[in-house]
Amino acid sequence: MKTGRTGAQTHGRTGLQAALRRWRRAGALGVPLCVCASVRLSAQVVGNPPDNSPYRDIVYHESFTLFGGRFAGNAGDADVGALPGAAFGGRLAVRLSGPVELWATLGEAVSSRHVIVADTSVTHTDSARRGPDIRMPMVLADLALVLNVTGDKTWHRLAPYAGLGFGFVTPTHNVTDPGGYQVGFDFALVPTIGTRYFLSDALAVRLEVRDYFFRYTYPAAYFDSLDLHYAGPPARSSVLPVGSGNKSWTNNLTLWVGVAYGFSF
User: Fold this and answer.
1) Closest Cα to residue 115, out of 177, 33, 166, 30?
2) Closest CA to 148 of 140, 138, 158
3) Strand duo 130-135 + 112-116: pairing
4) What is the distance between the alpha carbons of residues 185 and 169, in angstroms, rounded to a whole number?
5) What is the distance in angstroms between the CA of the first residue and the CA of the last residue of the chain?
6) pLDDT in tens, the chain (265 residues)
7) 158-192 as b/e, with b when 16 or more CB fall inside 10 Å?
8) Which long-range contacts link 120-128 to residues 24+ away (Cβ below 8 Å)?
């Protein structure tokens, strides 16, 4: 009889221990589930539901933009560089990874410039040096790496960005002054800031400011008395002060307004 009671007691303890183990397992699983559910509920209460979030994914990885705008120009130290004019162009943009894009931009500035000529009838005045302005359309081309500030998303439909490009500027045709000066091919640094405003997943308006930073190189005649191949005195003062540098770095701010269309290859 004692053995039977002992067996029953042992069996009872074994069953109780098994039940306790099951409750522990249930508790171990239940606590994390409750925590996760609590976090999800609190997130729904505190945060924004997906439909009301200010952030939206930028769906497409490529885009093409058509631009119009204004090229501010900069005549440089000798006042013979590019003058302000209208500008237009296009751009292909490819998202490389996350917030980084690669741009290829090609445009044209409908510019003009002053021309220095020889005039023996007037001396020591700017009017004696300057002839009629000539048309000088400028090709603007660069490749740029750009960082989207909001990553691969928009914020309230806005996607601001900043970047730096490297390219060239060159006139489509040229005229050489009597002093030997002409605007030629020049490399350019092109810092850029701007933003897109998305009208839909594929269509956006782009507003952008760029600076085409390049230099002009002046001929030796600009530092002489400006005896530009004409005979007879009196000689005029030089275009640039003697001893000044023969290169002039210029900022040429450009405002672009464009329409971008997104797509994927």
Assistant:
1) 177
2) 158
3) antiparallel
4) 6
5) 86
6) 444 444 444 444 555 465 556 545 544 444 443 334 333 433 443 455 666 789 999 999 999 999 999 999 999 998 999 999 999 999 999 999 889 999 999 999 999 998 887 554 444 445 456 778 899 999 999 999 999 999 999 999 999 999 999 999 999 988 888 778 889 899 999 999 999 999 999 999 999 999 999 999 998 888 875 544 444 444 556 788 877 888 999 999 999 999 999 998 8
7) ebbbebebebebbbeeeeebbbebbbeebebebeb
8) 120/230, 120/231, 120/232, 123/234, 123/236, 124/236, 124/237, 128/236
Level-2 CATH architecture, domain 57-263: Beta Barrel (2.40)
H-assigned helices in 80-236:
126-129
- Residue tagged 């190189």 (tokens): 217
Three-state secondary structure of 190-231: EEEEEEEEECCCCEEEEEEEEEEEEEEECCHHHHCCCCCCCC
List beta partners, residue 186.
169
Q: Residue 162's pLDDT is what?
A: 98
Helices then strands (H, E): number in the chain? 2, 12
Report the distance separating Cα 162 and Cα 256, nearest Å.
14
Which amino acid, residue 157? R
Q: Which amino acid is at 169?
A: V
Residue 105: strand pairing partners: 91, 142
Distance of alpha carbon 101 from alpha carbon 124, whole angstroms: 53
Euclidean distance between CA atoms 13 and 252, whole angstroms: 90
